[in-house]
């Protein structure tokens, strides 16, 4: 759970957003996960400027299609973790995380754009000090230019510089939104649209976060490239397919450390959650991986599913869903590495456990959930994650993919289970409050291979976007 400390801006927007006139539909004011995707061009019409922040969302520059906009985010998180890593840190760790982000988006005609985003992540009171995901005093999260006109029927745009990558479900490539410091990359990307296909291709290096001021640098031990294509099918269903390549000079798994050259081929079919009429939603995704690890081969895989049904006509508008996932593990005695690599996965892969607990590596899980809407922007969700090891010769890994608990000869399969709950109040389009809580009960494997204590986890969040 998380709690906002010492900033009144969270409440400034309550009641300040202007009402939309009945005779004209409201333009879409959306704060996207990637703020580069925000579109404020409709504010070229001064009569549509009705929100508190509209004066800085469209600032004309005196030429055709020339303007810039400003925006940002403040997020405060109060986090409490007991028995992190199942008791290897056998104490209650209570700390505060602060995130501040500010961006400017410059449109210099229809075919040239510059986007710059600053980030500052601060950590206070954590025993053991900040982790790389907790603190980055001040640096550039994004700083790129684009050349190309994306307003045509078919188009191509070249992007060069520091940028965020986030695709599909976020399972293989995500900005790491849950932790305090978001993730970015340095390199080149080409975005295209041909017919109904949207295709991105990129070649980048991970931007290494260091704790200081403007001292980030590309990770020259890791190269990451890929191709991601998506298109709509019919009846609200969409299809994604992609290829990802990664070259790491020092990759570590249960069997040891070596150079990893891994290729991933994946496909996803999905339908979004119903919001008006009752309906079925789903998200099914499968990945195959091959390559080399030192002198050994790589053969790994995963399959993830999320199937839900929204009962929008019932009180509380409940959505019932079940996730079921599996990813391969390894037998270190063979000459083929079988451990699945999640690449750069979403930060909250298993819900409320943002930065502790197991990750999507060498696992089987079942994850039922119920989500309800209480009205006035308040939603409540409750879920249960039950997890096992896929291969008994491989250990338990963290969300980013590093080894947490080695197999250590244990033949137990059951890792444990975690009930959890989340309450969120979306006050208006700008501000929200959220509380998360969960307990990961250690199963037989963790009791054999680690101290085996239960992880207690609680967070309070407060955020404001403009």
SSE blueprint and pairings:
Elements: H1 54-57, E1 59-60, E2 66-83, H2 84-87, E3 89-108, E4 112-124, E5 136-147, E6 155-163, E7 185-194, E8 197-208, E9 217-218, E10 222-232, E11 238-253, E12 256-271, E13 279-293, E14 296-310, E15 319-327, E16 336-337, E17 363-375, E18 378-388, E19 396-397, E20 403-405, E21 414-426, E22 431-442, H3 444-449, E23 455-465
Q: What is this entry, summarized?
A:
By secondary structure, this protein is mainly beta. It contains 3 helices and 23 strands.
From the structure above, extract its key features.
single chain; 466 residues; mainly beta; Porin; two-stranded antiparallel ribbon; 3 helices
Tell me what you see in this structure.
It contains three helices and 23 strands. It is mainly beta. It has one domain: Porin (Beta Barrel). The strands form two sheets. It has an 18-stranded antiparallel β-barrel. It is globular, with a radius of gyration of 23 Å. 36% of the residues are buried.
The CATH class turns out to be Mainly Beta
CATH fold name: Porin
Task: Outline the low-pLDDT stretches.
Answer: 1-24
From the N-terminal CA to the C-terminal CA, the straight-line distance is 23 Å
Give the helix proportion (percent range).
Answer: under 10%
Total helical elements: 3
**What number of domains?**
1
What is the average per-residue confidence, as pLDDT, rounded to a whole number?
93
- SSE topology string: HEEHEEEEEEEEEEEEEEEEEEEEHE
The rounded Rg comes to 23 Å
Structural class: mainly beta
The percentage of residues in β strands lies in: over 45%
Number of strands: 23
The main β sheet shows up as: 18 strands, antiparallel, barrel
CATH architecture: Beta Barrel
The outline comes out as globular
């Amino acid at each position: 759970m998380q709690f906002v400390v010492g900033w009144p801006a969270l409440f400034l927007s309550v009641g300040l957003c202007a009402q939309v006139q009945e005779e004209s539909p409201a333009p879409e004011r959306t704060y996207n996960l990637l703020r580069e995707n925000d579109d404020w061009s409709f504010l070229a019409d001064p009569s549509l400027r009705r929100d508190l922040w509209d004066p800085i969302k469209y600032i004309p520059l005196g030429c055709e299609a020339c303007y810039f906009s400003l925006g940002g985010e403040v997020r405060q998180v109060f986090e409490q973790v007991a028995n992190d890593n199942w008791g290897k840190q056998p104490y209650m760790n209570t700390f505060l995380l602060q995130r501040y982000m500010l961006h400017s988006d410059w449109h210099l005609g229809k075919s040239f754009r510059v986007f710059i985003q600053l980030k500052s992540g601060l950590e206070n009171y954590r025993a053991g000090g900040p982790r790389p995901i907790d603190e980055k005093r001040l640096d550039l999260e994004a700083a790129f230019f684009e050349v190309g006109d994306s307003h045509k029927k078919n188009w191509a745009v070249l992007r060069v510089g520091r940028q965020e990558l986030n695709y599909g479900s976020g399972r293989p490539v995500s900005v790491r939104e849950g932790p305090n410091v978001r993730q970015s990359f340095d390199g080149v990307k080409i975005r295209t649209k041909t017919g109904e296909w949207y295709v991105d291709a990129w070649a980048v290096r991970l931007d290494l976060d260091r704790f200081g001021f403007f001292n980030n640098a590309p990770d020259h031990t890791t190269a990451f490239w890929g191709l991601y294509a998506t298109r709509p099918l019919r009846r609200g269903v969409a299809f994604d397919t992609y290829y990802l390549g990664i070259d790491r000079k020092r990759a570590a798994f249960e069997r040891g450390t070596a150079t990893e050259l891994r290729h991933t081929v994946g496909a996803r079919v999905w339908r979004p959650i119903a919001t008006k009429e009752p309906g079925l939603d789903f998200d099914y995704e499968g990945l195959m991986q091959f390559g080399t690890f030192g002198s050994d081969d790589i053969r790994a895989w995963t399959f993830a599913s999320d199937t839900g049904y929204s009962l929008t006509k019932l009180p509380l508008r409940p959505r019932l869903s079940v996730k079921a996932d599996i990813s391969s593990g390894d037998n270190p005695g063979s000459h083929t590495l079988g451990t699945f690599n999640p690449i750069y996965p979403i930060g909250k892969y298993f819900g409320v456990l943002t930065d502790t607990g197991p990750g999507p590596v060498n696992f089987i899980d079942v994850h039922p959930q119920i989500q309800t809407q209480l009205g006035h922007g308040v939603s409540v969700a409750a879920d249960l994650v039950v997890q096992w090891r896929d291969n008994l010769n491989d250990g338990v890994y963290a969300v980013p993919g590093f080894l947490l608990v080695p197999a250590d000869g244990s033949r137990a399969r059951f890792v444990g289970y975690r009930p959890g709950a989340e309450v969120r109040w979306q006050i208006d389009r700008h501000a929200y409050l959220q509380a998360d809580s969960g307990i990961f009960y250690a199963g037989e494997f963790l009791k054999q291979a680690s101290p085996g204590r239960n992880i207690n986890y609680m967070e309070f969040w407060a955020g404001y976007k403009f």
